[in-house]
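Supplementary material to the annual report.
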Amino acid sequence: MFLAELRMETLRINGVEKQFPDGLPQTLTELLKELNINAATVVAEIDGEIIARHNFAQTQLSIGQHIELIRFVGGG
Amino acid sequence: MSLEQKHSDSNIKAILAEKNLNGDSPTWQGRLQKISGENVEKALFEPAGSYRFKKLLALISPAAENYIEQMAQIAHQLTIQRFGRTIRLYAPLYLSNYCTNSCRYCGFNKDNKFRRTRLTIARALQEAEVIASEGFRDILLVSSEDREFITVDYLVELAVRLRDKFSSISIEVYPMSTAEYALLFNAGIDGVTLYQETYNRQAYHYYHPAGPKSDYDDRLNAPDRIAAAGMREVGLGALLGLTNWRLETLALAEHAHCLIKRYWQSHISFSFPRLRPAYEVDGSQLEHLPSDKNLVQMIMTLRLCFADAGLVLSTRERAQLRDHLIKLGITKLSAGSKTNPGGYSVHSRAIEQFEIDDNRSPAQVAAMIKQAGYAPVWKDWDSAFVKD
Amino acid sequence: MDKLIIVGREFNSRLLIGTGKFASCELMAESIDKSGTEIVTVALRRVDIDNKNDDMLSAIDRSKYLLLPNTSGARDAEEAVRLSKLARAATGINWVKLEVTPDPYYLLPDPVETLKAAEILVKDDFVVLPYINADPVLAKKLEDIGAATVMPLASPIGSKQGLKMRAALEIIVEQAAVPVVVDAGLGTPSHAAEAMEMGADAVLVNTAIATADDPPGMAEAFKLAVQAGRMAYESGMPASDKKASASSPLTGFLRDE
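Predicted assembly:
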């Protein structure tokens, strides 16, 4: 019902709302694993703050955070 | 990363030392001798007005003496292109001949015994009145090393009083700090001329044995301070006749190049003071004195390497030579000059810094300029546009 | 031939390579290799989380090439600064090619935002290589605030028109006290050679190589062209055939001495 929907666990990732019916991944590392993204080459920003790679495993996630996942691509 | 770090290569002291341009350098003398006609021809084909050390070397070499006419044609065209057919006019106002230096070549040397003159602000203004009445709007305030009387405050006060009458006020006095130059800039002074006299350290030491001017490095670094303070015009020069004039030209050009790279908003001018007979100065030991032909070569070399530099000639030089030189790259002349403080308003017996050789009145010089097909320019800028 | 020096770091190659527009990572990698480059630019983009993508970064041997992240996509200083910090966080490299291009058609750089961003980044210890229009005054201003190089365009990105901005580039080369890297719009190896002959310190090439029929082959051609152009410059360009217009003699008076 309404309350249950409010309590649906979501994160805003790269500008898009993503729902986690089974609950939020606990840490950034877990999120990346769930999304099948190679942690070694990605840059992460949570609510505008850059997260250093060595902190991924310790970074706790909470509902509603704005997460940016960025990687290198070809460019001039 | 500090700006100093970034611009460490634009440190003139380091450059002169590295290139060995601050001494007698038999190496450079040898290299100059080895320059061939072919080298000179190649240099002449480089884009006119562009600076490259190799080009400079070729143009100032003995071999280039055979190409003087060619150099003249290029210099003439280039100057007209960049400056039009115009010659700017200015007048020097000597404020004092009290001096604390002992420069061997100068009539104002502190060891010379004569009655010295200092102008009060009021007298200086009187002099300026005369200068203005001749048509000048560009004035150069000159003084010997008289820090006691010709202070920064004095110059500030004088500048403020002269601002209404003159659209351009420059100074040629002792070296100052950046902060002092900034004060002067705010007071309405927009240009500073300061000759290194000689870039050769040993010669410098010999010719300036005592007084504040004996500090070679302080003087060398002063143009940086002048430009950093925001002055629009920076005037450089070497006193020709102290040492090898070809080597001086190399060092002088490197100095200018260095300043231009870093202080890209300031305009550089070169002057060509040739040693002249002066009161109690022995004129006989002048083995390094450049001839007229040498002087012409130097002027044109600098024009060919610096398309936009001002090239300034004072009344040290005789009339006929000046008349020819206005077609060879010169852009600015003084006229009717009195180099004795107080010399404009009264028939003064005060000692001159050097003997004048062009005694024509400003009106006569202006007429000569017109006759040569050029326009005399009395006023080239108006600081009233940008200052209160 | 003398080395390219940027903030004290020496490079043998004066050809920088951009990695965009390649048909595949393999072609990109091979082209980089054939170009002899030592500096390679990359861009930053959001990971597409719904699609599995190639990880192009792994195709670049970071021990051989200096990675130079660019801030392409940034439309103002704030975005450019943010991208720079992200890039630094990702790689530990503090070099950045500053690119602020609000115009999506010609991708021309915004001078005001570029200067603004450069100032912030230099203060934050970045080595800033700003991409600019061929504007000599802007180039000096960037130098004044501490940019490590200037990177003026030859013609718009991807246009392959060559040195359209030649006259302005000559002034920049003459006035610069930092290395000048001509970037954008170089379409052929001869354009690159021309830029080097003119006195540029280096060039950056992307589209011309990536979109060639044989990118690695073209990369090698550019390598040779850049070397040839530089060698010509260092040897002293040949005299051009200038005739002085006849005019009456100006120095006859000296003969009377």
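Chain C has a mean pLDDT of 91.
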